Predict the structure.
Amino acid sequence: MAVYTDITESELGAFLAGYDVGELQSYRGIAEGVENSNFLVHTTTGQFILTLYEKRVNRDELPFFLGLMQHLATHGISCPLPVKRRDGGTLGELAGRPAAMVTFLEGIWLRRPQPVHCAEVGRGLAEMHLAADSFTMTRRNGLTLEDWRPLWEKARDHADGIEPMLRTETEALLDQLEAQWPRDLPQGVIHADLFPDNVFFLGDRLSGFIDFYFACNDAFAYDLAVCLNAWCFERDHAFNVTKGKAFLNAYNAVRPLTDAEVDALPILSAGAALRFMLTRLYDWVMTPEGSLVVKKDPLEYLAKMRFHRQVRAASEYGLD
């Protein structure tokens, strides 16, 4: 469910009048996504994606997200390009929500990615990191290590009811991360949420990246850790080293990793798994029944946490 705010044809027509995109032909809600309301809009000039930003998105941060997409799209990275209004801006208002339109990106996201797709993601992610180097706006990562313990404290009393000993395991990992987290790795703009549903393919070729609403400034290697968790495990939560090898070596061929980044991959990957376990756990136990927030199983990321805690070197992920 990803249409939290519905819109009428007359409201949309009035909104589109602020753009040079022709006349409205049709529109429909898009079911995928969990944060905002999304619509596919057909006009006499083409197709566009309209997003209404809901309450979980900070309006003050929207210029960063839209500016980043514009920067990347004009620096060779395939991603949606924000559509400018007649007044030169990219942000408007519709149905009482901040709203923006971006160009339509052809492709589909893959439910069962293969190593060839993981390699494409690795290459594309490295190219994105390099292209964003000249982007001048910055945004703090709102879910860094410093944010994880406060989030955990809001949900920990419910943890053992979901999985025995989850509280003990989580607190032990938090203690380890706080003692060992690397602080001096190469940094820049990262996507921070590059899951399969945020990557489009045409056949086996990467079509582009979407959904930059967690993008921020942080360690490049942390973005790799997020992707290892998102792309390189099977449905039974077993790590697929062939996928890890394809992803990491394709990234490394475009933007070579430093020794410090390589050494940090196990701890960063454990941290990334914890981050997604915590946000899923929080939504699982704190979201009222009937809410429009989509709940995802936190135990998937508990299994990944356990795997990463046993890894001693990046070579175990397949890095040559």
Q: What stands out?
A: The mean pLDDT is 94.
